[in-house]
Amino acid sequence: MACNHCVVRDLNFEIKAHGELNLRVLPEVIHHLSRSNTIHKVEENVITVKEAGVRDFLDFCNDHMESEQVEFRIDDQTWRPLSELPTVLDMEWIDEVITKGLVTCYFQPIVNVREEIFAYELLSRFKKEDGSLIYPNEIFAAARNRGRLYALDRLCRMTAVKYAAPLNKKTFINFIPTSIYAPEFCLRSTVELANQLGVDPSLFVFEVVETEKVDDLAHLKAILTYYKDRGFEYALDDVGEGFSTIEMLLELKPHYMKLDMKYVQGVSSDLNKQKIAKQFLEKALEIQSVPLAEGVEFREDFEWLKQSGYQLFQGYLFGKPDPIPKQ
């Protein structure tokens, strides 16, 4: 069964009022919302309102309260100024994308030094019901704004596992560590699905998205340990200059490390990028991790990386993401 954060339920908005005028008006707001059955809870200067009543409250607040002294939050997230609330409400379409599973997967090849396909990275693509495309940066921004990141990440992981099953090939599947509360609950359904489909777990590589933004190392390590204990592999993406110490990498011990494309593109002629690429390679080999260069677009960069000792490569030079896996 999915945890509460992995499914789409009606949102409740906590509203916090400050200032003499707002606190004086607040009882009238509570009375009105109670009549419309859209208030969920009242605690001193904080009220919790169902989404059905939030637009009504917003209109009233803008007309009769000092809106700059009102804050809101969703699901214990950080408090935000009321001016950001309309954006959250306008992004309600993300709920439909998740509940109706409006996601598909594209395949991008990962090749070895002989340019043979070693694996595919599965990349999520989204559509609205009318068929129009939604760009990934747009959809993840909406998910974050509405507190749906957990549910969206789960949908993408589950969909990717289903697409990967018929390939019988190593596949890289992205996940966002901050979207996972506790691996034993949030990841159980993903692991169970892979087992039900009869796929060898060693064919799955779960790739940490936004590696550079990981703050809670212990939490990330718990997630990766959960995967590893069940026979899966994992990768760190976008690793580059200034990435945390070798001690951190030694502790995580990723099976694959992906060099950030900003150090890949133009590396054949840029001495600074070459220095970083070599340092990365040494770091990967030191912890017995497979070095993978992503974002390869030009053959001269590929040749330089190959001669330097890189083992795997990904980028438009070998194939763009496509709904049909390149053979």
TrEMBL record:
InterPro entries, per the entry: Cyclic-di-GMP_PDE-like, EAL_dom, EAL_sf
Superkingdom of origin organism: Bacteria
SMART domains with a match to the protein in the record: EAL
Domain annotation EAL: ranges: 87-327
PROSITE patterns according to UniProt: EAL
CDD domains: EAL (cd01948)
Entry-linked SUPFAM superfamilies: EAL domain-like
Name of the protein in question: Diguanylate phosphodiesterase
